[in-house]
Design goal:
heterodimer; A: 131 residues; mainly beta; 6-stranded mixed β-sheet; 3-stranded antiparallel β-sheet; elongated; B: 215 residues; alpha/beta; 5-stranded parallel β-sheet; 6 strands
Chain lengths: 131, 215
């Protein structure tokens, strides 16, 4: 059974502006803590389109299971100030998406990922203009 | 690994974007009854030697990405290399620890290597009793594992899979219309369908552009 990864952002509309502080809470459940090797949490943007995907990591933290942190499932939270750019963009050829991502690495070599997307900025959605 | 997501209400993904169609994101859909498990067994019966042959955009790399997790099961240890246009040599030497340690070598795009490099790779794998699985545009003398023969029906199944979480903006008739009957290049087809999806995306479903760029 896959672990259940929960991510909660402080803004229920999941809409932020440059300079805002994003507050995120995350938790892993439905898995034996002994099976978890590490957890990575990041705030990042990525492009989406017909070409190769590009991405940039704005915030990153990694927790490895050990004597100090035997149970990585426990509820954790962090806050981060959001940057000036790039802003979320829904274009025709390319789109830029921001998200908070939690990756869970298990001792058997598999990994599980969950994203919580959010909007940064307020760029209008691109429209195709008919000639 | 492609992450599971809960899309933002405003942000609608295009199911034909590279993010969703690239090898590893979209599973290989076999045209018949064959399964990935059976293909892995067939490769083992061939002592790990095999070639996946097919033209550009026929799904060779997608098949490989689907097959690799099956081949990675212990006690197998694989070394996988993806070659790009004009790459005439392996990106590592034969003394590379990963290459030395593995028992299955996988090369995506073997035809890129020079004849001499291909010969040396085959000799290395034979001498060290490693399997050699490759993808290639033409037969390069290895035992056949699968010959890729994409067709319209396969393309329609792929499109249905990609749109499984969306409204069916692209129909089977669209796929028939855009299908490259001469090249059978599915990558080219998916590029065209990306554009068609954007054109057809209902204007009503898009939120009205904000009047101001500020908050």
């Amino acid at each position: 059974m896959e672990p259940l990864i929960s991510i909660r952002l402080d803004n229920p509309r999941k809409h932020y502006y440059s300079g805002d502080t994003l507050h995120c809470q995350h938790q892993v459940d439905r898995i034996d803590p002994a099976h978890i090797h590490a957890i990575e949490v990041s705030v990042l943007w990525y492009t989406e389109g017909k070409g190769e995907e590009d991405l940039g990591v704005h915030y990153f933290e990694r927790h490895v299971s050990g004597q100090q942190t035997p149970d990585l499932r426990i509820f954790k939270e962090f806050s981060v100030a959001l940057p000036m750019s790039p802003l979320s963009y829904e274009g025709i050829i390319i789109k830029i998406q921001w998200c908070t991502r939690v990756r869970v690495f298990l001792r058997n070599g598999t990994e599980h990922v969950h994203d919580q997307p959010f909007l940064l900025g307020n760029i209008p959605v691109a429209q195709i203009i008919e000639p | 690994m492609t992450p599971s997501t809960t899309p933002h209400p405003r942000f609608r993904s295009n199911p034909f974007a590279t993010r969703w169609t690239q090898p590893g994101a979209c599973p290989f859909l076999f045209p018949g009854e064959m399964t990935i498990h059976q293909l892995a067994i067939q490769l083992r019966q061939q002592q790990g030697w095999g070639q996946i042959v097919g033209p550009h955009g026929s799904g060779k790399s997608t098949l490989l990405a689907t097959l690799v997790p099956e081949l990675e099961k212990p006690p197998s240890h694989i070394a996988c290399y993806r070659l790009h246009q004009g790459q005439r040599q392996l990106p590592v030497s034969f003394q590379d620890p990963d290459l030395q340690r593995c028992n299955q070598v996988i090369v995506d795009g073997l035809e890129q290597l020079s004849r001499w490099s291909r010969y040396r790779l085959k000799q290395f794998c034979r001498r060290t009793s490693k399997g050699l699985l490759v993808t290639t545009h033409r037969s390069l003398g290895l035992p056949n594992l699968l010959a890729m023969q994409p067709n319209l029906l396969t393309a329609q199944r792929i499109v249905a899979y990609l749109q499984r979480h969306h409204d069916k903006v692209i129909s089977d008739d669209d796929v028939r219309h855009y299908y490259p009957h001469d090249s059978h290049n599915l990558r080219e087809l998916l590029f065209d369908l990306y554009d068609l999806f954007e054109q057809r995306r209902p204007a009503a479903a898009r939120p009205a552009p904000s009047a101001s760029l500020s908050r």
